[in-house]
Specification:
This protein has 2 helices and 9 strands; from the N terminus they run βββαβββαβββ. It has helices at about 35-50, 100-110; strands at about 15, 20-25, 30, 60-65, 70-80, 85-90, 115-120, 125-130, 135-140. The protein has a 6-stranded mixed beta sheet with strand order 4-5-6-7-8-9, sandwiched between helices. Strands 1-2-3 form a 3-stranded antiparallel beta sheet, with helices on one face.
């Protein structure tokens, strides 16, 4: 797989038929190993192990509904009262992060109205803090530690 701009962790990979599978410890199951999944697993481990995010407040592949349309957030961080606080969108390392990616995560945020948005392709990471009062957002220089949210 790809070398990422994220710390390594003890990866669990297995084969099922002709597919490689990676263990998603949030969903507690093996999932198909794609380049995007490779980024997701590294990023979630980074948040938990390096940034102090509680494992129990993170969820992967969270379904949202907008009328008849079903959307799927890559990862969501919930606060202590189970309200979404952060949306995280992943792309494969070969996908350049563009405005289209921010548009995608913004659609999710129309439904959830979170405090933070993160976009990562494993090489570049962007974090925005939302300011709903002034109808603005601010790019942060780094992903905040959990205690600073």
């Amino acid at each position: 797989m790809f070398r990422l701009n994220l710390p390594p962790y003890p990866i669990k990979i297995t084969n099922k038929g002709n597919k490689q599978m990676i263990f998603d410890f949030l969903r507690r199951k093996y999932v198909t190993l794609t380049p995007e999944e490779w980024v997701r697993q590294h990023f979630v481990h980074f948040l938990i192990e390096q940034k102090g995010y509680p494992k129990g407040l993170l969820g992967n592949e969270i379904e949202l509904r907008l009328g008849e349309k079903r959307l799927r957030c890559d990862s969501i961080l919930y606060n202590k009262v189970a309200m979404p606080q952060m949306i995280i969108e992943y792309k494969a390392p070969t996908i350049k992060i563009q405005q289209k990616t921010f548009d995608q995560i913004s659609v999710y945020n129309l439904l959830l109205k979170v405090d933070y948005l993160i976009v990562s392709n494993g090489l570049q990471h962007y974090c925005c803090k939302m300011d709903y009062l002034n109808q603005k957002y601010y790019f942060l220089e780094d992903i905040p530690d959990y205690q600073n949210l």
